[in-house]
């Protein structure tokens, strides 16, 4: 279980998170929605310790995430970055198998390669991309390689930062199903950021709406349409009229 | 501007500079400490050896040969003013080994290696690859910095030695082909004149300059700002800092070796 308590983070005078509270039960899928630039990516990075929050607490399984053994902590996580963040000096398969080629999870190279190719297949990529360099792939393909890398070591907790942006509707469907499958079959805890409402409905157990540095609304996905929250309603309808300003 | 506020400005500038020095020093200590602590990344180390050592050979060789040749011409022409043309082999040897070899190789490494390390790491930072490394349980200081610093520490002295030899060879070629020196006598004068201390100082300088070059590249890369502009600034800053520090270290090391 992941719990954020009153997390705040500012970059100079840009107060991004202003007391964010959120709870993600173990083995469930949480989707975070919210306008561009509201701090969704920052929130994920705070949990991982990539960005240090100014104040507030983050607990993973009841333990303070900012203390204790960093390696053991990070070994439980997988993360898909918004910009894929592939290592451009390594071929695709070595990106995917990065964790399996070194450190505590090290395997034989050919075994790691096999796993990488299997994960690539699961994100809809053929084995012939395995030996290409990331720069030779399209944006959507890079995103899917990033996804394959995030799930390669079968982590318990997986963060997806906009997994379907830049993908065609069919591929989006494949990825949505994959995320759902990882949660239901492998029992992983997932936290996904997305702007795509059909993804929200496909992936989420629970939904949280981030706006103005705080969680405006959170609840089961089934209650999202009848939330009665003006922020959520405006977000679902995509209207320019409402409490969320169109220029920010 | 009144004198007091001028003084304040000066004080602030000095404090900023000291803080920067402190940060670099801490970074350098951290970087060096990671060389000795596992996990080690032999593949990254191999690539760094190739990039810093092997692929720098052409530019080092060309720099050295032209410098050695020019040095022979200058000393011959200058020496002729007081009938001392005969010292060409000795001065070329001492000038290359003690001073020009290490400094020019160091500066070439700053231009070639520091800039590429800084640009590469800064780009990795800007595109979240450093964050990705961390989430994949890999310490950036161990994976990126340690192999490069170690490779520079080991290869730059070798490059300096090669540069010294090629520089002397350049002087030899010019002196024997154009200035009428006797080849055998030239070589004998060179070998007899050089002391062990000259050669050791050359190699030690090489090692120090290599470490400076690699660490400045890594430091500026890791502390890069955001976007393409951040990468550009990091690259420029790293080369400036490495070049100035190499020249300063050269002054200090020369003092340590030859005036004590
Ligand atoms: N490293 C950083 N330094 C300075 N400001 C930052 C940094 N990272 C994020 N920000 C700022 O924090 C705010 C939130 O950024 P974040 O990337 O979390 O947005 P987001 O909600 O993920 O948006 P999007 O949906 O467009 O990805 C932005 O205003 C951004 O400029
Ligand atoms: Mg984002």
TrEMBL record, chain A:
PROSITE patterns per the UniProt record, alphabetical:
ABC_TRANSPORTER_1, ABC_TRANSPORTER_2
Q: Give an example GO molecular function.
A: ATP binding
The answer to keyword ATP-binding applying to this record is yes
S-adenosyl-L-methionine found in the keyword field: no
List, alphabetically, the SMART domains matched.
Answer: AAA
InterPro entries xref list:
AAA+_ATPase (IPR003593), ABC_transporter-like_ATP-bd (IPR003439), ABC_transporter-like_CS (IPR017871), P-loop_NTPase (IPR027417)
Q: Where is each ABC transporter domain found?
A: 2-237
Keyword terms of this UniProt record: ATP-binding, Nucleotide-binding, Transport
What name appears for this protein in its UniProt entry? Phospholipid/cholesterol/gamma-HCH transport system ATP-binding protein
Originating organism: Ruegeria halocynthiae
UniProtKB/TrEMBL annotation, chain B:
Q: Which GO terms describe its molecular function?
A: phospholipid transporter activity
Tell me one Pfam family matched here: MlaE
Does the keyword section mention Nucleotide-binding? no
Give TM segment ranges.
Answer: 12-32, 52-73, 149-172, 199-220, 241-259
Q: What is this protein called?
A: Phospholipid/cholesterol/gamma-HCH transport system permease protein
* Keywords (A to Z) from UniProt: Membrane, Transmembrane, Transmembrane helix
GO cellular component annotations, sorted alphabetically? ATP-binding cassette (ABC) transporter complex
């Amino acid at each position: 279980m992941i719990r954020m308590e009153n997390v705040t983070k500012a970059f100079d005078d840009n107060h991004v998170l202003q007391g964010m509270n959120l709870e993600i039960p173990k083995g469930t899928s949480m989707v975070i929605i919210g306008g561009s630039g509201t701090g969704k990516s920052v929130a994920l990075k705070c949990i991982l310790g990539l960005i240090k929050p100014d104040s507030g607490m983050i607990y993973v399984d009841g333990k303070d995430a900012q203390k204790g053994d960093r390696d053991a902590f990070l070994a439980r996580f997988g993360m898909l970055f918004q910009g894929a963040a592939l290592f451009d000096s390594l071929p695709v398969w070595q990106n995917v198998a990065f964790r399996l080629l070194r450190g505590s999870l090290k395997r034989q190279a050919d075994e790691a390669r096999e796993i990488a190719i299997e994960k690539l297949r699961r994100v809809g990529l053929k084995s012939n991309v395995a030996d290409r360099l990331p720069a030779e792939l399209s944006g959507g393909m890079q995103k899917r390689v990033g996804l394959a890398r995030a799930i390669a070591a079968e982590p318990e907790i997986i963060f997806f930062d906009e997994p379907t942006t830049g993908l065609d509707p069919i591929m989006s469907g494949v990825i949505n199903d994959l995320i759902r499958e990882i949660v239901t079959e492998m029992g992983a805890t997932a936290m996904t950021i997305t702007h795509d409402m059909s993804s929200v409905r496909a992936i989420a157990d629970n939904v949280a709406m981030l706006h103005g540095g705080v969680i405006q609304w959170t609840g089961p996905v089934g209650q999202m349409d009848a939330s009665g929250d003006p922020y959520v309603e405006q977000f679902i309808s995509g209207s320019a009229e409402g409490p969320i300003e169109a220029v920010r | 501007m009144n004198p007091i506020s001028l003084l304040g400005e000066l004080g602030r500038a000095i404090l900023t500079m000291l803080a920067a020095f402190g940060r670099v020093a801490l970074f350098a200590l951290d970087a060096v400490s990671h060389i000795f602590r596992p996990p080690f990344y032999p593949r990254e180390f191999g690539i760094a050896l190739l990039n810093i050592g092997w692929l720098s050979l052409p530019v080092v060789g060309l720099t050295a040969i032209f410098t050695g040749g020019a040095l022979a011409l200058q000393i011959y022409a200058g020496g002729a003013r007081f009938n001392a043309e005969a010292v060409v082999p000795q001065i070329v040897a001492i000038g290359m080994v003690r001073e020009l070899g290490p400094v020019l190789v160091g500066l070439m490494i700053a231009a070639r290696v520091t800039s590429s390390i800084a640009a590469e790491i800064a780009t990795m930072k800007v595109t979240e690859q450093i964050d990705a490394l961390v989430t994949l349980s890999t310490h950036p200081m161990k994976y990126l910095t340690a192999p490069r610093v170690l490779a520079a520490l080991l290869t730059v002295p070798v490059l300096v030695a090669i540069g010294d030899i090629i520089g002397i060879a350049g002087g030899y070629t010019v002196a024997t082909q154009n200035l009428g020196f006797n080849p055998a006598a030239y070589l004998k004068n060179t070998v007899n004149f050089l002391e062990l201390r000259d050669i050791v100082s050359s190699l030690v300088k090489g090692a120090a300059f290599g470490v400076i070059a690699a660490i400045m590249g890594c430091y500026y890369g890791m502390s890069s700002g955001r976007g393409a502009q951040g990468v550009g600034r990091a690259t420029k800053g790293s080369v400036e800092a490495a070049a100035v520090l190499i020249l300063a270290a050269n002054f200090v090391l020369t003092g340590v070796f030859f005036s004590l």
